[in-house]
Design goal:
The chain has a six-stranded mixed sheet with strand order 13-16-17-10-18-19. The chain has 41 helices and 19 strands. It starts with 15 loop residues before the first helix and ends in a 19-residue tail after the last helix. With 1244 residues, it is an alpha/beta fold. InterPro entries: AAA+_ATPase (IPR003593), ABC1_TM_dom (IPR011527), ABC1_TM_sf (IPR036640), ABC_transporter-like_ATP-bd (IPR003439), ABC_transporter-like_CS (IPR017871), ABC_transporter_C-like (IPR050173), CFTR/ABCC7 (IPR009147), P-loop_NTPase (IPR027417).
Length: 1244
């Protein structure tokens, strides 16, 4: 991943006031308002926030925790995190404490100010101005403390997230084969996307766990002074909410852990499906995997809906709690004969608002976020505690001793199924059970399966080493890469994409080799594991392995002198002999199961799409339409509004109730209620008259009960609709992905697609419903507050209108930048996952070649790039919110001082109502605007998912009329003027190809890289649509549905594709065959005994990509699957390219035996595999240049096929000998009817 060059952050040089008020963001807001922001507009992450720094700090603390293993202690990641960031956590505690003190002190000033309006008050006007100043000063102090505190909390969470991500990646780099089998790519991706995200909010509210109790004691004493024991009624209800909220928090934490496990399983399956999408399409497994993913998703959604129900109940309870608290408090106060005054009412309202917010909101959130963070830390900790393999001992000798052994293995015993166990033991990648292994010096490693990581061609070759141009040019030439690089438009600076998506198989293999040699090997010790015996004559020492043991050691001549038949070591002698001494056709061509392109070889990886501007209304409509139909949608809208009726009526009825308690002689200055559900009655020097409450209580109870019931139903329905939307949009995206053409997967990295299925779906599942519902509830509260205020005092609307206008203007200015920053942050996440996926694929290579530090540095760059976007996003949010609070503070100051100025014409009740409304609106309205921005930012995830539901689709799976069930019954293939290109503006990879392949013929297809071999097969399977006509048994393939077309043919791939699941599921994905048939297939491919030895037999579980079986065994399982399918047309996509001669011979014999009556197309890698074909098709530059029997082509002067083989008469004679031996030993089948030619050696 190439990280864009960005500027230093202005925060680095910002002054105190610029930091306090976030003025340093002025430049980015100016840019964002004028144009769309680009990655280059972001700032460098600060040194103290860099992944390198925080990762090293946490790694050091975690190392100390691991040291506890030697004692009685147990390692704790949470404890390591607390020690690592304790200074920042303490700083946050101090700032939040000052803010909460200001909240407690403010009602004291408010009470004194309201006492000024009593008649007579006895309070001088000067004192009233001081009390008004105190109210305003507390408001200002809250604004000054609140935003730095929240900013610091989010920053701590970001640091912890980055540090834990670094820790996880460090662990990945150290995991051996045994450790990797205990985890999966999906689990690791889920930890890096969802688990570490829980830390981002974990540090906002934990201080309220100790502030809340202290605050309760202080407020209780002050309330007792105001309303006496009546305050206990409201306080008891508030305290009862704490255990309820704690229970909800614990249940949510437990559900989060269960959901995470199911998300792991889903994401891991999606990773396998996306990585093996070519196999999925060729085998028509789309519906199979769609059903599997949806089954897992269904179980996941059940838990998410349960979690959402808890969240809905919590939201409804918080919404109603203010009304219930006020009702209980003033009902009790009235019943015991208390006299209601302005001071008592509004001071109690203020204190209960503070107390309710702390005890029923902040503390439950602290428990919820804390529990989720602890659960995530526990999951990460379990991963970090997976046992690691002991590294091989690398010995450094003096130069004088370099003639000694470079590699020493003494009585080594290791357990693994793969063929290259000896090489893995030497490299230190195979756990050694007994014995010792020593190695002299450094090691370079080229794996059998070429590993290419995203970057340029040069990056993949140099691999983090120092670049020496002259040596680099020689390596390019020696590995045969010069021609390849000349074909790329950007040369060796061409981006190769995820897993080398823009390269052919041969190009990837040559780059893999060039990375390994890093120079010339004449003076180096070279250890090669090979199945191609023609190369062993050049070896100084040959080690013969048989059944996991060394059966012979010596030079080739010594082994021959000792009468050791190397061919006899492996069954399948004919095939081995045919392979020996042949000039191998090793221009390893692109296969169906590796990325194509010849005409598009220099295509760069497609940049991830980013929308511009605001999230459109259509996205919102798509979201809600997915969750409910028209009738349910109308009912939801009504239900959202309906609870506001009893919400307002509760205030009105309480006001009316209080009025009737006054005597006819009482002058009522004002009777109303505020948004918190209080009854505000200002009585100037007049005693209250107690009136029996029996006539009022039933109606009030009914209103409160209706409010609670409607609020609960509203919350439950809304959360259900939101989660249902997420479920259906996930399924729509899944279907769209499975129906997308292969070009989509070749131009989009796996991590980018997984980001949608992990991070974006996670936001839609859990974060978006909560944020959206909060926004709707709060906006309704604001509307209700404005209505009540307007009824009581219409003058309140005068300052409200400009404040509201300023809010929305500020919001508009903010969102112009915030949206782009959020989208940049979202796209910056994908490279993190892609880098991890790439690392896991090439873990052995980078570890053996000691490039862990280089890849860790690249991972830190990816993290820093994402942190840059996230840090900018939370900074912009604070910039926005602090300005809203200052506008509200100005509004509070205006109301307070204007009231003192007009003290002669305004009552205390109106002043109290106006001030409490202003203070309340300051918090609520600011939260409304904040939540509206949060909703829009989170809706970008919906937008990203929606964009993946409208991908270009392949042609229909089913077309009517469908071909007969036995089609194709013969296997005749005809191509007429077929032209194919991978893009409308690209050079054709097939150019007017016409050919007829008769039923039952065996066709070998050969050609250099880019000749069009794979393009021919892709046209046949319609992986890429082509011009011209392709007919199979008289049916034009474009008139046949893809499901019928692809399911009636069989592909045996070069890279065998198996999926996590049972052996039975991989052999028989659609459960069409009996156990007897499955065992018979296994017996035919000589795997029956292997499977019988497994404890669970056919139910044996395969790990990711079937890695617990060797490459040869995986290939044989694919052959067994093909045998069970019984297709009339079989395609071998270099099926024997990566296997040993024994497996090679077995596969060829099985094909000859089981597919004798079938039409077989073989893309050749080893030329001996096609000498028994009826014909050889030679492709060059997208056209067929030769098509005849191999014997004819070998005898033809100037033949391209003959030039491929070479001028070795010995090799040609050997091929004729093998062919004649096969003819004598086998009864000719239908595929041999054209074998009448006589081969004449060249030169005779």
């Amino acid at each position: 991943m190439t990280v864009p060059t960005v500027e230093e952050s202005p925060l680095k040089s910002a002054g105190f006031f610029s930091r306090l008020f976030f003025c340093w963001l002025g430049d980015i807001f100016s840019k964002g308002y004028r144009r769309r922001l680009e990655p280059e507009d972001m700032y460098k992450v600060l040194e103290e926030d860099s992944a390198l720094r925080v990762g090293q700090r946490l790694n050091r603390e975690w190392g100390q925790e691991l040291a506890c293993r030697h004692g009685d202690g147990k390692p704790s990641l949470a404890r390591a995190i607390a020690r690592c960031f304790k200074s920042s956590i303490l700083q946050h505690s101090l700032i939040i404490s000052i803010e909460e003190i200001a909240k407690v002190v403010q009602p004291v000033f408010l009470g004194q100010l309201l006492s000024f309006f009593d008649v007579p008050s006895g309070i001088p006007v000067a004192h009233a101005y001081l009390y008004a100043t105190g109210v305003c000063a507390c408001t200002v102090m809250q604004a000054l403390m609140h935003h730095p505190a929240f900013f610091l909390a989010y920053r701590i969470g970001m640091r912890v997230r980055v540090a834990c991500s670094s820790l996880i990646y460090r662990k990945v780099l150290r995991l051996g084969s045994e450790g990797l089998s205990q985890s999966s790519t999906g689990q690791i991706v889920n930890m890096l996307s969802n688990d570490v995200q829980r830390f981002e909010q974990a540090f906002i509210f934990p201080d309220f766990l100790w502030i809340g109790p202290l605050q309760t004691v202080a407020i209780l004493s002050l309330l007792w002074h105001e309303v006496g024991p009546s305050c206990l009624a409201g306080l008891v209800f508030v305290l009862l909410l704490i255990p309820i909220q704690s229970y909800l928090g614990k249940r949510l934490s437990a559900l989060r852990s269960e959901i995470a496990l199911k998300t792991d399983k889903r994401v891991n399956l999606m990773h396998e499906v996306i990585s093996g999408m070519r196999a999925v399409k060729l085998n028509t497994w789309e519906k199979l995997f769609c059903d599997q993913v949806q089954d897992i998703r269904g179980n996941e959604i059940k838990d998410i809906k349960t979690s959402s129900a808890y969240r809905a109940f919590n939201a409804a309870l918080f919404y109603c709690s203010a009304k219930i608290v006020m009702f209980l408090t003033f009902l009790t106060f009235s019943l015991i004969g208390g006299g209601i005054t302005t001071r008592k009412v509004f001071v109690a309202v203020s204190y209960f608002d503070v107390l309710r917010l702390s005890l029923t909101w902040y503390i439950p959130l602290a428990v919820q976020f804390g529990s989720e963070a602890v659960a995530s830390a526990r999951r990460i900790q379990e991963f970090l505690l997976i046992e690691e393999d002991d590294p091989i001992v690398t010995v450094t000798y003096p130069v004088s001793d370099l003639c000694e052994e470079c590699v020493t293995l003494q009585n080594v015993c290791a357990a693994w199924k793969k063929m290259a166990s000896l090489l893995l033991a030497i490299s230190g990648e195979l756990p050694i059970v007994t014995g010792k292994a020593h190695r002299l010096g450094s090691l370079a490693f080229a794996s059998k399966e070429a590993w290419i990581f995203p970057g340029t061609v040069r990056d993949n070759i140099v691999f983090g080493a120092e670049f020496h141009p002259e040596r680099y040019r020689k390596i390019i030439a020696s590995c045969g890469l010069a021609k390849d690089i000349r074909r790329l438009s950007e040369g060796d600076m061409t981006l190769v994409g995820d897993k080398g998506a823009t390269l052919s198989g041969g190009q990837k293999a040559r780059i893999n080799l060039a990375r390994c040699i890093c120079g010339f090997l004449a003076e180096k010790t070279r250890v090669i594991t090979t199945h191609q015996l023609q190369y062993i004559k050049a070896a100084d020492l040959v080690i013969v392995m048989k059944e996991g043991q060394v059966s012979a050691v010596g030079s080739y001549e010594e082994l021959q002198a000792a009468n050791i038949d190397l061919v006899a070591v492996m069954p399948g002698k004919e095939e081995v002999k045919a392979a020996t001494n042949q000039p191998s056709h090793r221009d390893k061509d692109v296969g169906l199961f590796t990325a194509f392109k010849s005409g598009d070889s220099d295509k760069k990886e497609k940049e991830e799409e980013r929308k511009a501007g605001s999230v459109t209304l259509q996205v919102y409509l798509d979201f809600f339409r997915s969750g409910c139909g028209l009738v349910r949608g109308v009912f939801l809208i009504l239900l959202i509004i309906l609870p506001q009726v009893p919400y307002i009526l509760c205030d009105w009825w309480l006001s009316y109730w209080a009025e009737t308690q006054l005597s006819n002689s009482v002058t009522l200055y004002n009777t109303t209620s505020n948004i918190s559900g209080t009854h505000n009655t200002t009585i100037n020097n007049i005693p209250a008259v107690s009136v029996p409450s029996t006539s009022f209580l039933p109606i009030y109870v009914g209103l409160v009960g209706a409010l609670g019931m409607l609020s609960a139903v509203r919350a439950l329905l809304f959360f259900n609709v939101a989660v249902t939307s997420a479920e259906r949009m996930h399924n729509s995206m899944l279907m769209s992905i499975l129906q997308a053409p292969m070009v989509f997967f070749d131009s989009n990295p796996v991590g980018r697609i997984l980001n949608r299925f992990s991070k974006d779906i996670g936001i839609m599942d859990e974060l978006l419903p909560q944020a959206f519902f909060d926004y709707l509830q709060l906006i309704l509260i604001v509307v209700s507050a404005l209505l009540v205020s307007a009824v009581v005092n219409p003058w309140v609307l005068i300052p409200t209108v400009p404040i509201t206008a300023a809010f929305f203007l500020t919001r508009h200015y903010y969102l112009q930048t915030s949206r782009d920053v959020k989208r940049l942050e979202a796209t910056a996440r994908s490279p993190v996952f892609s880098h991890v996926s790439t690392t896991l694929c090439g873990l052995s290579t980078l570890r053996v070649m000691k490039r862990q530090d280089s890849f860790l540095e690249q991972f830190h760059h990816c993290l820093d790039h994402h942190s840059s976007g996230w840090f900018l996003f939370i900074s912009c949010a604070r910039w926005f919110q602090i300005r809203l609070d200052w506008l509200c503070a100005a509004f509070v100051a205006t109301v307070a001082f204007a009231a003192v100025l007009a003290s002669g014409s305004v009552s205390g009740g109106l002043v109290g109502l106006s001030l409490t409304q202003a203070i309340m609106l300051m918090g609520v309205f600011q939260w409304v605007v904040k939540q509206s921005a949060e909703v829009e930012n989170q809706m970008t995830s919906v937008e990203r998912v929606v964009s993946y539901t409208h991908l270009e689709k392949e042609p229909p799976q089913i077309l009517h009329p469908r071909p007969p069930s036995n089609w194709p019954s013969q296997g005749r293939i005809q191509l007429d003027n077929v032209t194919m290109r991978y893009g409308s503006k690209l050079t054709p990879t097939l150019n007017n190809v016409s050919v007829i392949i008769s039923p039952g013929e065996k066709i070998g297809i050969v050609g250099r890289t880019g000749a069009g071999k794979t393009s021919l097969i892709m046209s046949l399977f319609r992986l890429v649509e082509s011009d011209g006509t392709v007919m199979i048994d008289g049916y034009v393939t474009t008139e046949v549905g893809l499901n019928d077309l692809r399911s009636r043919m069989t592909v045996i791939p070069q890279d065998p594709v198996l999926f996590r699941g049972s052996l039975r599921q991989n052999l028989d994905p659609f459960s069409k065959h009996s156990d007897t048939e499955l065992w018979a297939a296994l017996e035919e491919v000589q795997l029956k005994q292997v499977v019988e030895k497994l404890p669970e037999g056919l139910e044996t579980g395969l790990i990711e990509f079937g890695a617990n079986f060797s490459l040869g065994q995986r290939q044989l399982l694919c052959l067994g699957r093909a045998i069970l399918k019984k297709s009339r047309i079989v395609v071998l996509d270099e099926a024997t390219a990566n296997v040993d001669p024994q497996t090679d011979g077995l596969i060829l014999r099985m094909i000859e035996k089981r597919f004798a009556d079938c039409t077989v197309l073989t893309i050749a890698h080893r030329l001996h595999s096609i000498i028994d074909c009826n014909k050889v098709m030679v492709l060059q530059d997208g056209g067929i240049v030769e098509f005849d029997e191999p014997s004819v082509l070998l005898c033809r002067e100037g033949s391209v096929f003959r030039n491929m083989v070479g001028d070795s008469a010995q090799f040609i004679l050997r091929m004729r000998q093998v062919l004649q031996e096969r003819r004598r030993s086998k009864t000719p089948g239908p595929g041999h009817k054209l074998r009448n030619n006589t081969m004449t050696p060249v030169g005779d």
